[in-house]
Amino acid sequence: MRLKILLLPYLLFFCVSILLAFSIVLLFSEEESGSSSNINVAGTSISQEVETHRDTVEHYAREYEIEDHISILLAIIQVESGGTGADVMQASESLNLPPNSLSTEESIEQGTKYFSELIQSVEEQDLDVDTAIQAYNFGGAFIDYVAERGNEYSFDLAEAFAREQADGNQVTYSNPLAVEENGGWRYSYGNMFYVPLIHQFLNTPSEGEWIRPAEGMVTSPFGYRIHPIYGDRRMHTGIDIAGSGPIIAARSGTVVAASYNRGLGYFVQLDHGDGYQSVYGHMQPNLQVSIGDTIEQGQRLGTMGTTGTSTGVHLDFKILKDGDYVDPAPYIGL
C-alpha cells in the first residue's frame, strides 16, 4: 500500500505529460491544416496534341509581339481543347461568333491576337500577367475589376467577379483543383479556376540542370496561399526557403538585375539564355554580384535576409520560363 502511495505522484505526472504532449501535437496539427488553403498547381506536361501546334503558336506570337508568353498560349490550348478539334483556343467568341466557328489556324491567330490585346491592356494599367490570363476566360471587364481593387490578380478577386456575374449561381465542377479548394463547384459565369488551370501546364522542368540555391526548410511552396502580411489569397510565384546562410546560383547565367524593390527587397535575377530566368529575393544588402556579371552554377550571390515585404529571414526563389513563373520545386529536386 505504501508503495502505491509513493508511486501515485509519478503516475499523475506521467499522465499529465502525455496529455500535454498530445495537446501540443494537436495544436500544431490544427495550425498547419488551417493554413493549408493553397490550390495545388503542381506541374503537368503539355500533351503531344498541343505540341503539334507549337510552330503555329510561335509564328503568331512573333507576329503579335508576345514571344515571351508562348508557354501561356500553349497552356491555353491545353485547357481549352487539349489540342484537338478545330477551334483549339476557343477564340470564336472573342469575335462574337458562335463557338467553334474558326479553323485551327484561324483559332490560333485570333486567340494569340486577343491575348496580346489583353497583355497590352494589363501593361498599360500596371497589372500582372495572371489578370490577363483570367481575362482570356472572363473577358476584358475583369481587367478593370482588378485595376479598381489593388492592381494584382488573386483567386479571391476571380471568385468575387464570377459570383457577381453569375448572381451567386453555382454549378458542380469536378476538376481536382476545385475539389481540393471547395469540394467541387464554381460559379456559373466563366471559370474562376482558369489561372490555376493554366499554371499547372507551365511547370515543366528540365531535369539535371539546376541545383538547390540555399540550404533550409521550404516554408511556403509555389501556388495559391493566404498572404502572410496582406491576409488575402494570392499566387505565390516562388518557394520560400527559411535559413540564414549563403545563396548560390541554381544555374549558370548572366546577372540582369541586382537591385532593391519594395516586395522582394534586395534581389538578384539571372538570365540563363534559353528562355529561363531565376530570381533570388529578400537578400541582405551586401549583394556579391552586379548587372552584367557572368555567373557559374554554385557561385555565391549573397546571403539570406529579410528585406522587402518579409516576415523573417528566408530566400524567395523563383524560376521564369519564357517570361512566366513556374514551380521551382521540381527543377531543384524538391
How would you describe the overall organization of this protein?
The chain has 334 residues and is of the alpha+beta class. The protein folds into two domains: 48-199, Lysozyme; 217-326, Glucose Permease (Domain IIA) (Distorted Sandwich). Helices cover 36% and strands 20% of the residues. It is built from ten helices and 14 strands. It has helices spanning 2-35, 48-51, 54-63, 70-80, 104-124, 129-138, 141-147, 155-165, 176-182, 194-199; strands at residues 170-172, 185-187, 217-220, 223-226, 233-236, 239-242, 246-248, 253-261, 265-271, 276-283, 294-295, 300-303, 314-321, 324-326. Strands 3, 6, 8, 9, 10, 11, 13 and 14 form an eight-stranded antiparallel β-sheet that branches. A two-stranded antiparallel ribbon has the order 1-2. Strands 4-5 form a two-stranded antiparallel ribbon. A hairpin with a 3-residue loop joins strand 8 (253-261) and strand 9 (265-271). Helix 3 (54-63) crosses helix 5, helix 5 (104-124) crosses helix 6 and helix 6 packs across helix 7 (141-147). The protein is globular.
